[in-house]
Amino acid sequence: MMLSTDIWVAALIRRAELGGGFGMVVRKGDARAGSVLVKTLNLADKSVRLYGEATRGDGERVWMRPALSDQESDLDRYIERAIRIDPDVWVIEIEDKQGRHFLTEPVEEG
Known about the structure:
Number of strands: 6
Low-confidence stretches: none
Distance between the termini: 28 Å
Strand content: 25-35%
Order of helices and strands: HEEEEHEE
Helix content: 25-40%
Number of helices: 2
């Protein structure tokens, strides 16, 4: 059984806090089944990355970088488009000295 999105998001933010980062909900989506975008900010070098959830053909949940740009303005435009397409999407921002995302599922950096 999969967790509802609101509980999953709370756990992600808690992992970030326990690991020395800071996480916040920028936009709430559907509490039960909303998709999630995670934007990370590396405080050391000011780099940003965006991660979106996806499902592999075998049903495994993975994370990928839907926008490979390292420009925050490009990532913000991607997020705006995603919200227009899916108003139930959650947007989480994580700030960390090492740029960690704190996701526990597989991440395909591609």
